[in-house]
Fold these 3 entries.
Entry 1:
Amino acid sequence: MISVRGVGLGLAAVARPGYINLGRDADLPADRTVEAMRSLVFALLDDAYAHGVRYFDVARSYGRAEEFLAAWLVSRDPSGVVVGSKWGYTYTAGWRVDADVHEVKDHSVATFDRQIEETQDLLGERLDIYHVHSVTPHSTALTDKVLHRRLAGLAAQGIIVGVSTSGPDQATAIREALAVRIDGEPLFRSIQATWNLLEPSAGPALAEAHEAGCLVIVKEAMANGRLAAVSELGDAPDAVALAAALHQPWANVVLSGAATLEQLDSNLRAPAVEVDAGALTHLAEPPEEYWSHRSTLAWS
């Protein structure tokens, strides 16, 4: 099992012109061309690596995230890097912010076959972890035996197979994933889930995943920017929010979704921040309310 701990960098918000993080209009280059976004991504990756970040997170649906990361890896040839990507969504926005549909979800074997080839064409042997993107309870990705054999074949090549989860029933999805077996052995060895001070409901299931030997990766620790406006988190709400996740005993990696160097440098203060997450439990919302709110966030 890969051993990695601390803050990682996710490229969801910076490898396509549109995303749902709050305040993003002020963060990105004005023209948002492919060239401008590539330059931004390279700067973020350089800064993150220089400050000790070793886990980098992309997905097929994050615009050109895999392409940008692959080019940076070739250019810099960094050592000790762990790369995680995801399949199951197809990017459909055509590099537009005002697209009617930005990504389409499909967990079929055909989509896996297509997307793993696309991912490996870009990342090659740099791919360490491959998650099924955004699994929910009773997803076909949890029951499709043909797909499981495909994923087991990938695992046999040395790639860790996992799931990412979303929605108000993440805990159920995580437990269903932990129960999937191939020849008596657990198939999914990495779990990536949303956990933050507004939506901590997956915590007990993530603790079970950690106890079962899974790598646990936290996404959306800033709640798509919503926690930046919570006055109780002080003058550095991002660092406090990430620290609250890092302090969970089951968390291996907490992803920064920074869109600027200033945000990244502030996020990277999180490991040194002392925080009593238990004193902030009153911030939590009912999961249904949290995910309903998230679904209304505009792409910008």
Note: The chain has one domain: 6-246+260-295.
Entry 2:
Amino acid sequence: MIALRRYGLTVIAVFSTVIIFIVPFLFIVLTAIKDRTEAARLDFSWPTNFPVWENFWTVISTRNFMLVTAYINSTLITVGAVTLLVILAAMVGYVRQRRKGWWNGLVDFLVLAGLMMPPAVVPTIWLLQEIGLFATLHGMVFIQVAYNLSFCIILYRAFIATIPRELDEAAIIDGARPLDVFFRVILPLLKPVTVTVIVVQSVTIFNDFVNPLYYLPGNQNVTVQLTLYNFQSQFSTAYNLLFMNILLVTIPPLIVFLFYNRQIVAGMTAGAVKG
């Protein structure tokens, strides 16, 4: 009974994880490596032959290598947006934590509003068209920064609260300017939360489907998630190709999560526990 109480929740959690995550992933892999006839059955049967390369090359080369273009676009958007998020969120979180003023309440309201208020699609499209950023990759970068900045600011502010102010004062006494204090003293200490922001936001932005669908029309601007939408009609009866596309889109975020899941937890909990 004691053992059941101690390990019961663990067993339930492991079993739930297997059912919810591992079983669907195995189904995707099995279907992706089958031929068209066997994949149409949509079951867990072991394939009699393995046309892996044929399925892979067909998906890659479809529509003039659209998936390759999508990977390039998604990578550019993700790298650009995450870079700006780290720099801007760290600086805002530092200033917000260290400096107290009458504007603190207003800044807190705006940060929370960025988390709670739903995006206004039509006004955003109109604004992007007016400034010439609609249907451009750099416009999509700014959209991702705007939608994810509030969450990153909260993470950085909570973590910076754990860093003693004496470090700032000592650097100022030694003659460091404000930017030197931030970039040379504070920013190197933010590595745990920075890794968390990079990994979480990279996976989120790379997997984003709705925002590119609204703000990034055109085959030349396609992202990896939009390839599923574009290929769905073409591969509607070729489940092996459709699931191969799903597998190719799923693998990069999965690898990132598997390698950095401990850093994600460490960065999220450090500020929460100490702040």
Note: DSSP finds twelve helices and no strands in the chain.
Entry 3:
Amino acid sequence: MDPFSQATLGAVAAQSTSDPRRLRAAAFLGCVAGLAPDIDVFISSSIDPLLFLEFHRQFTHSLVFIPVGALICSAVFYVAVRRYLSFKETFLFCLLGYATHGLLDACTTYGTQLFWPFSDDRIAWNNVSVIDPLLTIPAFILMVVAVIKARANYARIAFAWIVFYLVIGLVQKERAELAALELVRARGHHPVSLEAKPGFANLLLWKIVYEQDGMYYVDAVRAGLTTRIYPGDRTEKLDIPKHLPWLDPSSQQARDIERFRWFSRDYLAVDSRDPNLIVDMRYSMIPNEIDALWGIRLNPSASAAAHVHYQTNRNPSPERLQKLKRMLYGESLID
């Protein structure tokens, strides 16, 4: 989830247990502790471009690390609040703020290792976008009002709003999946897997990805008062012997593909425009397209020890943004 949302949820979680005199300090500690787990973004390597994928949302985001992370935050920030709080109170507010981070991240589609070190499964409940203003802005306003008016009830309302919005996300996800299943049946398909993922910054437009006979199908569902399907693209699932016959199975690039496969939960395909670019099918700006937001580029002439190149694609054209807008409004894409 974006830092603004993480800070806001951490702050309102801490404020919700505070008395009026400590709301400002609670908001501060909940905010910084709610942001703290993302310090793992600094774990990276100029040599190994996939290292950050393995460590982001790993141990700092796990459930068992919450009290450790809260204790570290308490030790660091106690000096800023010791005039107003005891260390015990400082730890409580940091604990509440820190605890929200991994759980909120798990609500997105990226994947969070909540059960590290016992499991490296990336938990993704797919019920909110990584950025959603409708989730965050009302809660932020209520958090500020709680400080100004010195009333914790505003923070509790903010916390309740976030929980309510996440529940709405689960409802919308189910509606999108039911609409997708009708489409799948109409095509006579029996998919190996099917997932619905929220579109960027909204719970109205959903990306549908499913696997059928070695192909990935990508469609969009607008789950408004009624549902509308936007049929999309399809592409072959990554088959290394077929798509990358030149690849040495013992090479570093082959190992990097498996690392990227774990990260993307095996939603891998070869980009239609570049036979050496492997993309993560889960993400695209336009939900019924396969124009992935990120992928790894291989080099057939690279040495056996060379890593892949990680690249992103986050510059949509005005025409594609207009297409996204029309889908959000439930309009036809055919002029």
Note: Residues 238-320 form one domain.
